[in-house]
Amino acid sequence: VHDYIGNDRYTLLVLGGTKTNVVPLLRRFVGFGALLEVREIADARVRDVYGCDLILLRPDMHIVWRGDQLPENVGKLVGIATGHSKQ
Predict the structure, then answer these.
(1) Strand, coil or helix: what is 86?
(2) Contact by Cβ (8 Å): 60, 7
(3) How much is the pTM?
(4) pLDDT for 39-62, tens place per residue?
(5) Disulfide engineering: 11 pairs with which of 47, 57, 64, 83, CB 3.0-4.6 Å?
(6) Under 8 Å between Cβ of 84 and 46
């Protein structure tokens, strides 16, 4: 999985073939001036290892958030992930 992740941007891993609409998240990252790359890994085994459909990683490879669908307030998530808002 590390081969799919850049170290100069945020990465959203979309696992197991999920069809979640990630456009709202991409737009929010652009609004904060942060780069987000979406990497799809359709292999269900990888999804099973991580236990969820979506994983958001910081450029330093720490997991910021994970879940099976995007939260209702993606702006808050992006603000926390990028350090632009208080938790």
Answers:
(1) coil
(2) yes
(3) 0.89
(4) 999 988 989 998 999 999 999 889
(5) 57
(6) no
